[in-house]
Design a protein that fits this description.
This protein is an all-alpha fold and 177 residues long. It has 2 domains: 43 residues, Up-down Bundle (Single alpha-helices involved in coiled-coils or other helix-helix interfaces), CATH 1.20.5; 107 residues, AhpD-like, CATH 1.20.1290.10. The protein is 63% helix and 0% strand. It contains 9 helices and no strands. The longest helix has 24 residues. It starts with 13 loop residues before the first helix and ends in a 12-residue tail after the last helix.
């Protein structure tokens, strides 16, 4: 598949240029995946609003979901990006591989979350009942369940954008498992 061109700041709208400037200021660069959103006048702003929205989930919990969903959807870009982010959140290489496989034996609450996220992603939202029960038993609420679905949706969006655009991955590659 031919790759979609990653636009430069000069090639995007003024609205997206402002977003590029903010990204560069806040994280040091504009990741290729975010840049490709800027082919659309509104997609980058909409996506950033979704991914940065308030949630009941902690940053580490969001990374568990990001890793699991990206693995299910076989997204090399998001696996690379979220492996790097997960390391910054304190996960070890071994924990990251285990999470990608849909578990977290080192933490019962994260294990229930990983299993639920995997079931949601693999079954197109129709998670198995045991995963949902274990999620609630681990201390999560119905509100948390809705927040999990939002993160699954967020990650599915980026996974699909990568699959359709085949842009260069600008993060260190995640190990193949």
């Amino acid at each position: 598949m031919k790759s979609v061109k990653v636009p430069t700041r000069e090639q995007v709208s003024e609205t997206n240029q402002v977003l590029f400037d903010t990204l560069k200021k806040n994280i040091g660069s504009v990741p290729n995946l975010f840049a490709v959103f800027a082919h659309s006048e509104n997609a980058l702003g909409s996506y950033l609003a979704l991914s940065g929205a308030k949630t009941s989930l902690k940053a580490k919990e969001k990374e568990v979901i990001n890793l699991v969903v990206s693995q299910v959807n076989d997204c090399a870009y998001c696996l690379a990006a979220h492996t790097a982010i997960s390391k910054m959140q304190g996960f070890t290489d071994e924990q990251i591989v285990e999470i990608r496989k849909g578990g977290a034996s080192f933490d019962t609450k994260l294990d229930a979350l990983a299993k639920l996220a995997k079931s949601i992603a693999e079954n197109k939202g129709h998670a198995d009942e045991q995963s949902i029960e274990n999620f609630y038993a681990a201390g999560y609420s119905e509100g948390s369940l809705i927040d999990v679905v939002l993160v699954v949706g967020d990650k599915t969006i980026t996974n699909y954008i990568y699959a359709l655009t085949n842009i260069p991955v600008d993060f260190p590659a995640a190990p193949v498992i």
